[in-house]
Every structure is written in C-alpha cells, then in structure tokens.
Amino acid sequence: MKPTSILHRKWFTVPLLWVFAIVAWQIGAWIYGPEIIPGPVATWKGAQELLEDGSLVKYIGVSFYRVFLGWALGSLLAIPIGLIIGRVTAIRVFAEPFLNFIRFIPPIAFITLFLVWFGIGEQSKIALIMYATLFIVMMNTLTGVLSVEEDKIRSARSMGASEWQILVHVVIPATTPYIFTGIRLAMGTSYMAIIGAEMIAANEGVGFLIWNSRLFFRTDWIFVGLISLGLMGFLTDRLVGWIGRKTLYRYGVISSAPVRR
Amino acid sequence: MSANASANAHTASNTITIERLNKSYADLKPGSIHYIIKDIDLVIKGGEFFVLLGPSGCGKSTLLNIIAGFVSKSGGNLRVGDEEISKPGRERAVVFQQADSSLFPWLTVRQNVEFGLKMKKMPKEQRRAISDKFIRLVGLFGHENKFPRELSGGMKQRVQLARVLANDPSILLMDEPFGALDAMTRRTMQKELSHIWQETNKTVIFVTHDIQEALLLGGRIAVMSHGPNAHISDIYDVPMGYPRDASLPEFQALHRTIQSHFDAELEGTMYP
C-alpha cells in the first residue's frame, strides 16, 4: 500500500467529522438555548429518561417491527408481480401506464384512506409500508426483467430450456441485482412512511414519540427520536447491504450504496 | 441417445435445405414490401463447414437467426433433414458474437457448460463427465470454477463453444464469434475451431465479414450481396486441407478473387 495522507484514512476522518458535528451542535445549543436546540448533553439526558422507563426501546422495536413486516410482505408480493408484468407483454401494456401513474402518489398521502379502509390498528400501518415498498420493488424488478439480454434467453432456448426454465434459470438470476436494489431503496421509503403514519395515528413508535413530544415541548426527546431514526435506517441499510453482498455476490450485487430518491 | 446418433452419423438427416427463403417487412408506404433477404437457395450438407461471407448489415445474421429459429421467415422453406424448422431446437446450437451477453455470469464455467444438460434433468455425475470432456476439449481445464468475469475474451468464447458442444448438437451456428477478439487470439481460436470441427464432425454455419477468416475455416464460402434484397451471389469451393496456410499462392489467389467480387459489387452500389 502506498503511503497516503492521514486525511485519506477512514478511521481518522469519520470520528473527526463526528467531533465537528457535535461541536457545531453544542455551539448551536449555546446560541439559541435548550428549548430551540437541545445540546448533546441535554439530548443524552432526555434519552436516558426514555431508556429508563423502557419507552425508547419499545418505540424503536414497534417501529422496526412495522417497517420490517410491511417491507418483507410488500417485497414478497412485488417481486412475482414485477416478474409477471415484465415477462408478459399483454399484461405490461395495460399495467405500465397505471404503474407510472400510481407510483407518483407518496405513501403519506394515503394515510387517512388506509385508516378508513384498514382501521386504526396495526393493519393500516403495515398496509402503508407495503404500499411504499410495492411500487419501488415492482418497478425495479420490471426494469430488471426488461434489461435481460436477448442473447441469454435465446441461448437458453436453443439449449432446450422451457419457458418456465428460462424464467427460473435465466430471468430471475439476471434480475436479482435490480430486485435487490429495489428492496434496499424500499427500506428507506418504508421508514419515511411509517413515521408519517405514526405521527398521525399511533400510540407508540418513534414517529409517535417525535410528534407527542411537542405537547410537552420536549425538543430533546424530538432529537432523541430523530437520532434513533437515523441510526435505525443506517444500521438496517448496512445489514441488508451486507447480507446482499454475502449471499448474492455471484449475481452481481456489489457493495455500492443505493442513492435514495 | 437420439441427439448423439444424429450428430455422429453425418447423413442426410442433418442436411440443411433452404429454398426461396425470404425475410421482409411491410414498408412505410402502404403496399410496398421491403426485403432484408430475398430468395435464398442453399443446401448445406451434413458435416460441412459452411461460411456465410458478406459486408456488415447485409442480412447474413438475419439468415443465421432464421436457421436458429430466433427470427421467423416471411416465405420459403427451411428444413433440417426432412423436418421443417420454425423454432429453436437442441440440434442447432448457437455461438453468439458477444460472450458477455450470452454467457450466464452468475454461473461458473462448469455450470455454464452444464446448463443445457441440467435443463434436460441429467443426473449430476453424468453432467460432470460430459462437462469435463468439453472443458478439456476447448482448453479450459483448471478454470472450471471461475466465473465468466474472471476470464479473457478468448476464454469466454471457449466457454460458449464448450457449452453448446456439451448438448451434442448436429449443427453449430456461429455469428462472427471471433469478431470481438484481438488478432492473435482470433488466429488461435480459428485453428482450434477447425480442429474441433474435424474431431466432432458437426455441420457448421459460420458468419463472418473477414475474407481471410472465411478462407482459413470454410469448406465452402457463400458470398452474400449487400442488402436490401440480399441474396447469395456466389459460392466458392475451397479445395485446401487443414491447417491452412494464408501465405500459399492458391490461398492468396482465392482471396483476390473474392476481394474483387466485393470490389465489383461495391462499385455497383456506391457509384451508380
């Protein structure tokens, strides 16, 4: 390895960045006062309060459960639908304009309707996450299916593969990187959707914590909620990325982090 | 196995007969029809190394894709043996120009070679014996567990060749398979292909735009005219044994003849 400047070393630059951020945060807190910007220490104390009565861990657990369940169900539903739309031209002709219309409606816009349709309980939140996941994974799967090279399908066919074998042994493996990108992106939008839903209609969850804290003017708890969200998203994204790299390497899933919309 | 028998017995059963074959599409002007290839007549005997030679865009790939069953013909007859052809079939293997787009990058060399056998649900031990044989034949022994991305362009084409040979087809359809390779690798691959052809007795239809390549490989060379309305304008016999030496006078004489054929045709189309 050739010698590089200390500024090119991750173990040095990443902590340095965090130190800068915390210092800036503290300065902000001094200037504007703890009601407007609670400093790192005040936030840490708020977090301790929430940790001691167990509510923070519970809220994180609840939000994570909702995201995970809705995301997993949504992906399981979206992948086969995407494959079918991609493979069957007759269906695609009708489905594509509809998909391109509905995918521009953000999940949060559906909250009230979903409450009416699925009730105030867990169902409406899970349904919302499924909606947030469904179209992203479906569109990515569809794009993947459409970009499978014709030569691959032709060569499989001339080696005697049936249409079903072509789907299982050629189209799905070739589409795997696209599907994976789709489910990874969907994880991000799922968090956005769940926070919205929890702010409007929930008695627990990180979104509820952030929204409810306004009643007590506890900006420190809001900060705790925001930081929790950031950490949850970061960790799950890293986890999903790591699992993808480990298990799907041969399909061309590589380590690049997807860009959120 | 029936595929085995038909491949090894080079009788009339794997003769390719093409009669008045057309490929056309309706033109923008109503009523007028645009022909890509028109009235192709060919008989390619079993076990023959047949070269389709022509300029880029003349429709030779279209003809090959029709024989492969990938593209439907608009008119005429196409038979392998006595059977009319309209779909891809195991007996006609295709080697594509681009290995990257036709190999399966998620499979190792061995898994790529065994693909067709696996589709036939052949047991693992049998598959392994066959893939071993053809991986050795194309000189990829020791690279079985590599992925295509770890191989050079020439090696990838060897994988393609082993992959189709493993299915024991009677006919090999090759669409400029060495066109993307550097000159030295191309020369090696040409030598090995004629060696493999001699060893396996397959019928080969080989598409190229390179006169030298056509002369190094082909038993007969069909020269295609420039499209539209492309047809076979001449067929040359190459009465030379293998391996061929491009520096021999008879080789060069034939090269000149074919070159002047193209020059004459080019003059006709470009400076009317």
UniProtKB/TrEMBL annotation, chain A:
GO cellular component: plasma membrane
Gene Ontology terms describing biological process: alkanesulfonate transmembrane transport
Domain ABC transmembrane type-1 positions: 60-244
Subcellular location: Cell membrane
Gene3D superfamilies: MetI-like
Record membrane topology: Multi-pass membrane protein
Pfam families (UniProt xref): BPD_transp_1 (PF00528)
Membrane-crossing segments per the record: 12-32, 64-86, 98-120, 126-146, 221-240
CDD domains per the UniProt record, alphabetical: TM_PBP2
This protein's UniProt keywords: Cell membrane, Membrane, Transmembrane, Transmembrane helix, Transport
Domain of life according to the entry: Bacteria
Family in the record: Belongs to the binding-protein-dependent transport system permease family.
Name of protein: NitT/TauT family transport system permease protein
Organism: Paenibacillus cellulosilyticus
UniProtKB/TrEMBL annotation, chain B:
Alphabetical keyword list: ATP-binding, Nucleotide-binding, Transport
Pfam families linked to this entry: ABC_tran
Record-annotated ABC transporter domain positions: 16-251
InterPro entries associated with the record: AAA+_ATPase (IPR003593), ABC_transporter-like_ATP-bd (IPR003439), ABC_transporter-like_CS (IPR017871), ABC_transporter_ATP-bind (IPR050166), P-loop_NTPase (IPR027417)
CDD domains, per database record: ABC_NrtD_SsuB_transporters
Gene3D superfamilies named in the record: P-loop containing nucleotide triphosphate hydrolases
One term of GO molecular function: ATP hydrolysis activity
PANTHER family: ALIPHATIC SULFONATES IMPORT ATP-BINDING PROTEIN SSUB (PTHR42788:SF13), TAURINE IMPORT ATP-BINDING PROTEIN-RELATED (PTHR42788)
UniProt protein name: NitT/TauT family transport system ATP-binding protein
